[in-house]
Fold this protein.
Amino acid sequence: MASVTMTVNGESVTREVEPRMLLVQFLREELRLTGTHVGCDTSQCGACVVHVDGKSIKACTMLASQASGKAVTTIEGLAKNGELHPMQAAFREHHGLQCGFCTPGMIMSALDIVQRHGSNVQEKTIREELEGNLCRCTGYHNIVKAIQAAAASM
Amino acid sequence: MNAPTGIGAAVPRREDQRFITGKGRYVDDLNRAGQLHAVFVRSPHAHARIAKIDSSAAKALPGVKAIYTGEDIAADKVGGLICGWVVTDKHGQPHRNPPHPVLAHGKVRHVGELVAVAIAETLAQARDAAEALDIDYEPLPATIDLPKTFAEDAPQLHEEAPGNLCYDWEVGDREGVEQAFSEAAHIAKVDLVNNRLIPNAMEPRAAIGEYDSGTDELVLYTTSQNPHVTRLILSAFIGIAPEHKLRVVAPDVGGGFGSKIYTYGEEVTCLWASRKLGGRPVKWVAERGESFLSDAHGRDHVTHAELALDKDGKFLALRVKTMANMGAYLQVFSTCVPTYLYACLLAGQYLTPKIFCEVRAGFTNTNCVDAYRGAGRPEATYVVERLVEIAARDMGIEKTEIRRRNFIPSESFPYETPVLMTYDSGNFPRLLDRGLEMIDYKGFPARKQEAERRGKLRGIGLSCFIEACGLAPSAVIGALGGGVGQWESANIKFNPTGSVTLYTGSHSHGQGHETVFAQIVSDLLGVPYENIEVAHGDTGIVPFGMGTYGSRSGPVGGGAVKLAADKVIAKAKKIAAHMLEASEGDIEHESGTYKVAGTDKSVNIAQIAFTAYVPHSYPEGVEPGLDETGFFDPLNFTFPSGTYIAEVEVDPDTGIVTLVDWVAVDDFGIVMNPLIVDGQVHGGIAQGVGQALLEQCVYDKESGQLLTGSYMDYCMPRADDLPALRVETTDMPCPHNPLGVKGCGEAGAIASPAALMNAIVDAIGKDIDMPATPEKVWRAIHGGRMAAAAE
């Protein structure tokens, strides 16, 4: 067993875990933060995207122990004092989700896209940057709209 | 003023609050006290005899509670999985219906078939145990595709199905069609493969079975589109428990697209094992690889079709021969998809007076094939709309003109087609006109020229489709072989304080029922939107339901809400009359206010609900309470229709197809929530584009191994594969639906493949099959030149 300490959504947590435990398992099983989803077994679907030290990462490709000492933000950590993050609000306003399963990863990736490309990010860039996030419900149309709208307001 | 929340308002979804904050509750998010974990062992062979299963080493591993095989399940007299639709073949015989065991027994018939289950304290221990199982297989030759599975020397799957034939079925007028063909001025022909698809809902299937020995009750938490149907199948056919001792809960479900209609072996096993293990809950969650192998696949048709035309391009007759792959076993709707949901839609939007269609359905050593978004109707639309554009090219008639010459005129509804359907309504020229206007069809030649200057091939393609939604009425479905009723139920329960809970038998796995059904109730009863809660997905809470598939929630589920609301209003009038000391006939209802006609005396629905539950002064002969249920069994299918137009550019050097514009004009009847309806269309288009450009399920033709078993091998549509989509709806109500609704869930997936393939064919001037991958397109463009160079 390995001792892992990290900050998750602003709170410090320490757990003894198997060395092979993935970050996504750590979040879901140890911390019961089930907003981060597992949609595939080949690191392609992006349902498990979280932020580690401010950068988006697929939590199924990182061991929990690799995140030790780092700051992790999950979908549960975005809303502050009951107020939705503008990206969350934009996904709702523009109907950027249907079944909701890809949504947490989609929102975390979207934030990273806006952080890197700024508030004037273009539709083409957003579409290319979403390469690592699969959605089967929306046809991406409203996801792209939501990200552009949120970017402009952030 | 508050934003509108009634029927037709673009209300943002209330369920989003939990999904965007990580509070959605999918089956994998649930954990029951004391739960065990199940890992299934699946067949590595497409076809083999199971010679021996030695579980002694696996059982000895730490944490392992049980290893079960097909023999254990069979010994407990657990029934097999079922096909719910008996198709009567052309000789009057029912389709061949071989047994479909929960866990394989004696033989395996496709890669990924369930063979055994390992159940342990932790998931890792269950995995170790599954790996430690020692299974000897004696491989048999396999048969993978059509038409080879019908060959005399093809390996045989089932004793019950000689020649691997499930059924030989036909519909229409064979002689009439032959006669019309003999008199035709032109015959347009096409050979088409409708590529096999893997549904890929983003949430993998999952199940938790839990037995309570104190009450002798079983609970199944599962990823289902129709929990009541699952309960019925588990109870009446598989015999796992009596219906009243079985509760099926489908909480938040992450997409279905058909693949979560069915009852699968994993669900049965988890339930059965929990009882076997004294009530410890047993949880299973699919890995994506298991989803690829075992979620029922879609499509997989091979078709030859011919259209007879007179000298003016009028359609005289349509003749279609289709082979449909059923996979190794039948699932709930497998048999009806290539028959009633396919051949009966071959009239499309046209006045084709004679149609004849033959369908041969066959077994192969592949996973089950069943309904996937659109189910039969995308295949029909693809045949008709590809053939129409081929005929137009053959005869030198402009492709919109040939359609106009053959459209069923708007004044001729109800219109009886030559293939069993009676279309209720439609205005096809109007849909086409609007689509052409939106995409600036007239400007296309100039755009094509401009593209040519850049070295690109530009094409435009149409798909004018019609589909049938909301399978109904029950009596007709029964006459055609369907095993269940096709109604829906809704229960409107007022609380004494005037708020409402609506219990609907429809199931949302992305469709947004919690919002839309609340809008409907609010609109009909005048209860504030925020005071209405919508409950679904739990047989322990919702009285009854048939679930969500075939675009039925709006037309059928919504219809049931309307019936229940009408009963509420009727009772409320009686109570209001008493409260206002007026006669019932004088009470008028509008938006929740019950008024004595011609006066200013009124009471509102909240006051009436309170009185109904605190009936101190109450009309004689009226029961207390305000709680009404509606069961809606429609008079007919609904028939959404539309025009989809795709515009593409093909790079002749790379074969890459770029979608440059896309418009869709749909007639869905009355639109309940345009935000949600547009979203349904977008998603359907993406799946249609996926089928036409990217997706194909491939099995190795010899070994039967699934070659496209992960997201690295199976190409899912991504954001940059799609353009911004321009979608519109009209507002032509369905004449026989209580809310005028036609249904919108599948249109995009039904219409899009034909539009896109027609556009590609228009661009490159060659016929090709789906998916139009860059390689295939490049070869089609350069085939001649390459062949010449090779000589």
The radius of gyration of chain A is 15 Å. Chain A touches chain B through 54 residues (CB under 8 Å).
